[in-house]
Design a protein that fits this description.
By secondary structure, this protein is an alpha/beta fold. The chain folds into three domains: 162 residues, FAD/NAD(P)-binding domain (3-Layer(bba) Sandwich), CATH 3.50.50.60; 141 residues, Polyamine Oxidase, Chain A, domain 2 (Alpha-Beta Complex); 81 residues, no CATH class. Helix content is 33%, strand content 26%. The chain is built from 14 helices and 19 strands. A hairpin with a 2-residue loop joins strand 3 and strand 4. The protein is globular, with a radius of gyration of 22 Å. It binds flavin-adenine dinucleotide (FAD). Flavin-adenine dinucleotide (FAD) binds next to helix 1, strand 2, strand 11, helix 9 and strand 14. Flavin-adenine dinucleotide binds next to helix 1, strand 2, strand 11, helix 9 and strand 14.
């Protein structure tokens, strides 16, 4: 350890840490990231004209924390022309122009149609703010559902990585609100990053250079002689640095483990925040002509081992241009993902591909590459009745040297919530540094 005291150490290089580092880039800053890359749960790898996507992909459009940073970094978002509300039901794919028409389009009994329509009305009323979200579960908000209707909404609800009974009603409404573009915070997750979400991390790595220390797993951050002493392990060795201010931009339970001096109610709140798993398969295809899925971007799958299926090549299919090949992805969330965590990657790939082939037989003979990614902490969600006020009280109080940032500042995690929390923590660091000087 050198005598040098850095202005700020940012711990964690996901969207929250990257946003914090962006806003503090003029200071003496170090970013410590456990993985060998930045980006956290935003993860894609380039594959020629396409990219293999294995993490977050829907970016906010319009004015947002994320857009402000990525445009300043010279990155470009691309519009998605395909359907984001397609549904696989009983092995058939439906893509009606309006989601409201599903109760009339799907081959269902009258009882199922009525239940689906009623659940849809409750959702729409909640999303449009006509009724305050109850403090109960999303399952309670939707009401009792026949099995096949339950399967549709359960698959869609697992985008929160939780079952309908585990997530609060506000989480479910947020899931549908951000997709429909009228979520409570007005943010619509509706565009892609050209080249894949990994481009943001690449650009940040270029900007930070050696100030981003990769493969550095932080073990502790605690006050020592008026500064924060940060201990981390890199390449099998223990290293230390000192900083005036620290931003913990790691998942909530990791933050509680690193900062042992947090007030007990805050540490307890962080340690108890709910995360569920996501297990994904990214697929690179090699077809040489138009395919039945070309006009679909996102599909809820009610009868597969995965819940969601995506066509990441769709935003590139513009102006009649269609390069050979493509990029697909699927993921399971909630209970099915938890079960997949226990299974070998090769078996997961076989199971997921079998369902993709069942639904899109034209995939047969056109698969070039499959990569499975397990995210034990895939997404964060608020449980019914969960109280996070200790966390918000801590974050809002002045005089702190340790700040918290992450997607868990929202009821449902997404990159915009994370980047907003990172920007807020950066503002507090600047304020504390100016008070001290
Ligand atoms: C499959 C999938 C699909 C998703 N889809 C979307 C989407 O379409 N749109 C959207 O907005 N969001 C999506 N999300 C969620 C989004 O990725 C997260 O909300 C976002 O990445 C959270 O950012 P974060 O910085 O809070 O946490 P993370 O992205 O998890 O970053 C935290 C970082 O901290 C590092 N870290 C942890 N412990 C330590 C330690 N001890 N020392 C050093 N570093 C450490 C981790 O390695 C990680 O890089 C998706 C997530 C997944 C997994």
């Amino acid at each position: 350890m050198h005598d040098r005291v850095h202005d700020v150490a940012v711990i964690g290089g996901g969207p929250a840490g990257m946003a914090a580092a962006w806003h503090l880039r003029d200071l003496d800053l170090v970013l410590l990231e456990e993985r060998r890359r930045l980006g956290g749960r935003l993860y894609s790898e380039p594959r020629g004209e396409y990219w293999l996507n294995l993490g977050g992909h829907l970016f906010p459009s319009g004015r947002s924390h994320v857009q402000e940073i990525i445009s300043a970094l010279g990155l470009r978002t691309v519009a998605i022309s395909g359907s984001k509300t397609s549904l696989e039901f009983g092995g058939t794919v439906y893509s009606p122009r309006r989601v409201e028409s599903y109760p009339f389009v799907l081959p269902m009994t009258v009882r199922e149609r009525v239940a689906l329509a009623r659940a849809g009305l409750r959702l729409a009323a909640g999303v449009r703010g006509r009724r305050p979200p109850p403090d109960g579960s999303f399952a309670e908000l939707l009401g009792p559902l026949p099995a096949r209707v339950d399967a549709i909404l359960r698959a869609a609800g697992r985008r929160a990585c939780a079952e309908l009974e585990q997530q609060s009603a506000s989480v479910g409404l947020s899931l549908f609100g951000t997709l429909w573009g009228d979520g409570a915070d007005g943010v619509s997750l509706s565009v892609n990053l050209d080249g894949g979400s990994g481009r943001w991390a690449e650009a940040m790595s270029g900007l930070l250079g050696e100030r981003a220390r990769l493969g550095a797993r932080v073990v502790s951050a605690a006050e020592r002689d008026g500064h924060q002493l940060v201990v981390y392990r890199r390449d099998g060795r223990e290293e230390r640095l000192r900083a005036r201010q620290v931003i913990l931009a790691v998942p909530a339970p990791a933050a509680a483990a690193i900062a042992s001096e947090l007030p007990e109610p805050v540490a307890r709140c962080l340690a108890g925040i709910g995360y569920g798993a996501f297990v994904c398969a990214g697929v690179i295809t090699k077809e040489t002509g138009a395919m039945p899925w070309d006009d679909i971007y996102a599909l809820v799958s009610a009868s597969s081992c995965y819940d969601m299926w995506f066509n990441h090549a769709n935003p590139l299919r513009t102006g009649g241009h269609r390069a050979d090949g493509g990029s697909l992805m699927c993921y399971a969330g909630g209970a099915p993902a938890a079960a997949f965590l226990e299974i070998e990657e090769s078996e997961i790939a076989s199971l997921m591909l079998a369902d993709m082939l069942r639904i899109f037989p034209r995939l047969d003979g056109n698969i070039d590459e499959v990569k499975v990614q397990k995210w034990e902490r895939g997404n964060v969600y608020r449980r019914p009745g969960e109280d996070r006020s200790a966390l918000h009280d801590y974050a809002n109080a002045p005089g702190r040297a340790v700040h918290l940032a992450g997607d868990y500042f929202g009821d449902l995690g997404n990159m915009e919530v994370a980047a907003g929390a990172g920007a807020a923590a950066a503002g507090k660091v600047r304020h504390e540094l100016s008070r001290a000087s």
